[in-house]
Write a structure and sequence with these properties.
The complex is a heterodimer of chains A (374) and B (510). With 374 residues, chain A is mainly α. Chain A has a single domain, classed as ABC transporter involved in vitamin B12 uptake, BtuC (Orthogonal Bundle). Chain A is built from 16 helices and no strands. The longest helix of chain A is centred in the N-terminal third of the chain and has 30 residues. Chain A is globular. Chain A starts with a helix and ends with a helix. Chain B has a six-stranded mixed beta sheet, with helices on both faces. In chain B, a hairpin with a 2-residue loop joins strand 16 and strand 17. With 510 residues, chain B is of the alpha/beta class. In chain B, helix 13 crosses helix 14. Classes of the chains: A mainly alpha (374), B alpha/beta (510). At the A-B interface, helix 10, helix 11 and helix 16 of A face helix 10 and helix 11 of B. The structure holds adenosine-5'-triphosphate and magnesium ion. The site of adenosine-5'-triphosphate has 22 residues of chain B, from strand 2, helix 1 and helix 14.
Amino acid sequence: MKKNNLLKNSGVQSLIASLICIIIGLFVGYIALLIINAEGAGKAIVTLIKNFLYYPSKPAQLKYLGNTLVKTAPLLMCALSVLFANKAGLFNIGAAGQYVVGAGACLYLALALKMPWWVCLLGAIVAGALLGALSGLLKTAFNVNEVISCIMFNWISLYCVNMLLANVKESTSPYTLPLKANNASALLPDLGLGAFFTKNNYVTIAIPLAVITAVAIWVLLEKTKLGYELKATGNNKNAAKYAGMKENRNIILTMAIAGALAGMAAALLYLTGYEQWSTSQSSVPGMGFNGIAAAFLGGLNPIGAIFSSYFIQHITAGGAYVDKTMYCAQVSDFICALIIYLCGFVLFMKTAMNRSITKREEKAAAKNKEGGNA
Amino acid sequence: MENYAVEMLHITKRFPGIIANDDITIQLRKGEIHALLGENGAGKSTLMSVLFGLYQPEEGEIHVEGKKVDIRNPNDANDLGIGMVHQHFKLVECFSVLDNIILGVEPVKGAFLDKDQARGKVEELSKRYGLQVDLDAKIEDITVGMQQRTEILKMLYRDNDILIFDEPTAVLTPQEISELMQIMHNLAAEGKSILFISHKLAEIMEVADRCSVLRKGKYIGTVETKDVTPADLSRMMVGRDVKAKVDKEDAKPTEVVLDVKGMSVASKRHKKNAVNNVSFQVRRGEIVCIAGIDGNGQTELVYGLSGLEPLSAGTISMCGKDITKLPIRKRSIMGMSHIPEDRHKHGLVLDYSLEDNIVLQRYFEPEFTSPLGFLKRKNIRAYAERLIEQFDVRSGQGPITITRAMSGGNQQKAIIAREIDKKPELLIAVQPTRGLDVGAIEYIHKQLVEQRDAGKGVLLVSLELDEVMNVSDRILVIFEGEIVGEFDPKKVTVEELGLYMAGAKREGKA
Ligand SMILES: Nc1ncnc2c1ncn2[C@@H]1O[C@H](COP(=O)(O)OP(=O)(O)OP(=O)(O)O)[C@@H](O)[C@H]1O
Ligand SMILES: [Mg+2]
């Protein structure tokens, strides 16, 4: 009885559903590897799961764990962006574009205007928020579906940012100037965190900041008046209107906050100096889209998103170690994408699980009864 | 042994915190109309959902045509010839009537839909039973009455012989109700067996052969309607005598709370105004009733008053202040309460808990939100518990019950509790007793009168003439968006009102 009660708890269900999705994802990934090249499949999938454990020495392991965490932070922020909008009934597929303008803003502030890190961070947040708010505005003022405007903005922002950052790129490559050499004050402070990860300089306050933001978003959604209003609007916008909530304001505000989160995501990556922006890229960075998968895999819960983001980043990073002599470089991306894609089925899984629990209970009840009659 | 169409034997169904059906046995004879009566939350809808395969009972068995059957889902039910019209309709809003009727059992010719064949069959059924619908209209554009007929056609189209009607009359106009009664008689005469849920005793007396009564999940008994009076039935159901008439003194109206001048509201359905140049007043200490046949502009009138829709002309003032352009929240804070017509569309956030719905109009007040914007959960809980107790809102888990899992009548009670406890200056109540049992109706009517006696203005919009005559102090009849007459309920007959409501008569305009 107790066990069943636990199984009926929505949080526990989300967790189990997520784990099942992960296992199915890995399994399908394994099969795909088998088809491509049967010989190395087992090894490859193990490598993928091991990620930094691939290295034999402890210090190396720690260092590369640090790298995984460095990229988990922005992914978590994107996941938060998507799930926050989702609670208010909006689908923020524009997290990718908001991430792009965030990157553009913080790098431009850092490299062209030589601003300190906190100004760059704020700039990224504001840029993301503005783009998000614009989608919200289009929806409220002209009834343009946010999905359409977001996809459009994803591309517009990519090319605008490429143009903007072309002003601060290395003369011989498409990449933006390295932060360290050009404006070290724009690097996020590490408060000595890097020491825990074998002097990994990329480990900064970005990581705790992302986790704190996740908790803050949870508090905002569950404990505050604003969360109450946004969720009401998401669940039944007629009732929200009837109760005098400002529907339009809430839509714009939600998109602005979601945009701010995605914009901040970019700052948390690019201000560590871990990556440079390539001004010749012609596809929108996947971070925002992976955020969608991470949000769903995390059961649309901010705390769940912390773990799901880590997992997705973990296998993505692990992909880099897959034997390149057996599989071409894209294979690891492909497998990760496959797993991430299957992660999106969490909600479906949850419903299926619910059904089977009810069925089992009924059977048990029927049996009990027969036993009682006999 | 008698030949039953359906036997539900010793059915028990539990939900978290409540036994919705506790060892219930009901037998439906072939060709009979069998009514199911019980208070809000007594378990009627649950029992019917068990029969329709939506819920699996923990105990008990179901026999159809004498054979034990296992109904796992609505498809099984359909295969056994069981059809159901739900308390809250289940139609696809953006589909046409025809598409809704054939949904799931579309006839095909090769790989293509054969809609002509379907249309023929539906038209034939609609003619045979007098179920008039516009097959090509979209559900969102038609009246609830027509939606209901669509649901019935859906059942008939599937050749069902056992028909379940869950509170079909709650949303219908008196005219539509008498039509429905006639249709049910016709169906029964053709040998179909009908289970019929209603809170209206008069309907049960008129149409049903037998009536089974439930109370708080338990089976009380089954009677032949010809052997009992409505008072007997209500006593069986509530366990005490219920007064059909409200005790109230004459109204003593004082100053004006609501003053409407030349108000017009545009229509979404046609080019003309839904509300056209309407002027009236509501004073403190009186209950003014807007009476009329559904679809004559009542909905839009209330939307205009509450701020859900803008006016196309005219002004509204409340307590002496012009509120024509004020947003909904401001009107609410100034003392307007609004019990909405459609509880699922406007009244509730169904996925919120009961307590969260109870504070839906007040969550922002200092009592429930701290200056920093945090909800004061403890106060919300305490407040919800008080209203639940006071208004007898029944549910499985009290304040934390998800509203979707509550019975229709109890959802309505939660809304009424919320709106009345807001201490309004003006209470706008649209069909406030829709779907309530007789005991609850008595209580709500008493509440309305109490509000009036406390010096509030009450504007009641009702389709039910009984309610109109019984509760109001002044009646305004609305026809095609215009007020066509004003009456004193003590000096007018129902027949007279009917003529005005149908547009056959109107007062000369001054
Ligand atoms: N899906 C559900 N989950 C949990 N509890 C439920 C669910 N459906 C109904 N209940 C509970 O079971 C009880 C019976 O509900 P039911 O809807 O059968 O009442 P009813 O007799 O149809 O009332 P009404 O006249 O108000 O429609 C109610 O207390 C309700 O809260
Ligand atoms: Mg019901």
